[in-house]
Write a structure and sequence with these properties.
Length: 346
């Protein structure tokens, strides 16, 4: 295992600067200021979620007509279909299963090396859960896709997802006369022709957007802040550390290139909630047990702690924005290169 973790003397062990189990560590202005910012941000995020996640509550207006779908709405097939009609859903399934297998192996090795510590594996655990759930949804989607385009004829109707559907002419009618209909997965279909997503699909979409921001934030902090610091201290990165802070981003970006998931800006609130829950959990654990902090800027013993917390909170916006820009660039390029087969909602 040493070829993965590197020599013990080169491993990075954060220094415990203060005893976190004593009351004086928490009863001071630094903690109260940080706690005020955290609670304010949590309240703002929850209000944003409550106001925006209302697609199911606005089905019709006072006149009984259906309202236009909002960005919070999600259709079931968006979780498993590729963004190009020429790509079979099985390819996305194969990618997700492969990513899940690699990340699961990496997670098991990390837990074994770190003695079961969840502090350094929580992000890769979240990404692994994403690909595990995505694999299940893709399996179900491939089954549905197979039933639709498997060549079966039901009630005298042939179905073709790329060319649309048509009714087989009755006896005596000209075979050249057919009634074309909209394809089940066509870009021009109406929103009511598709099944709305269930709770697992919504959970998958939310996990995707949480991981998108979290991967950008964590990897940027690691590669641009911690790694230069470690280089100054003559520490050497091992294969495990590099894998944990690179494979998650590589696989997530690969899945983003394949999938049809949207990326509404308001769901940055889930990203904030995820980070806040992690911070509060860290506070509770360190208040009970004297442990090292997984990230130095979480340490409340420094007089600069409030500034660090505020800076990391601000970093959420550009990190989430970078991923939103990547998806926007994907929409722009693929819709230009493949105008007939690109089918993501923009």
């Amino acid at each position: 295992m040493s070829f993965v973790t590197g020599p013990e003397e080169d491993s990075w062990h954060p220094v415990m600067t203060a005893d976190t189990t004593v009351a004086s560590y928490w009863l001071n202005w630094r903690f109260f200021l940080c706690a005020m910012w955290v609670l304010t941000l949590m309240t703002t995020a929850l209000i944003l979620i409550w106001r925006k996640e209302n697609c199911s509550k606005r089905e019709s207006d006072s006149g009984g007509e259906t309202n236009t779908k909002t960005d919070s709405c999600l259709y079931d097939d968006e979780t498993w279909r590729p963004c190009l009609t020429g790509i079979h859903p099985a390819w996305l399934l194969a990618f997700r299963v492969s990513a899940f297998a690699v990340l699961l192996v990496l997670l098991v090795v990390a837990v074994y090396v770190n003695g079961g510590s969840i502090f350094t594996t929580i992000l890769i655990t979240s990404v692994t859960i994403y690909f595990g759930l995505g694999s299940l949804l893709s399996m179900r989607g491939c089954y549905r896709y197979h039933n639709i385009v498997g060549g079966d004829r039901v009630d005298n109707v042939d179905v073709d997802t790329e060319q649309g559907t048509y009714v087989t002419p009755a006896h005596g009618e000209s075979s050249s006369i057919s009634v074309p209909r909209k394809s089940l997965y066509s870009n021009v279909e109406g929103p009511d022709a598709r099944q709305p997503a269930g709770k697992w699909a919504y959970a998958f979409h939310i996990i995707f957007q949480i991981n998108a921001g979290a991967v950008m934030l964590t990897d940027c902090v690691f590669w641009f802040i911690l790694v230069p610091f470690l280089a100054i201290k003559d520490y050497h990165l091992n294969v495990l550390v590099i894998g944990m802070h690179s494979m998650n981003a590589i696989f997530l970006l690969g899945d983003t290139a394949f999938n049809c998931l949207r990326f509404p800006w308001f769901r940055i609130a889930y990203f904030f909630v995820w980070t806040i829950v992690y911070v509060i959990f860290q506070w509770l654990v360190h208040a009970c047990v004297r442990l090292w902090w997984p990230y130095p800027f979480l340490d409340l013993s420094s007089s600069y702690a409030p500034l660090w917390y505020f800076a990391v909170a601000l970093m959420h916006i550009p990190c989430y924005g970078v991923f939103a820009f990547i998806i926007k660039l994907k929409h722009t390029l693929l819709s230009r290169w493949f105008p007939e087969s690109y089918r993501c909602l923009r």
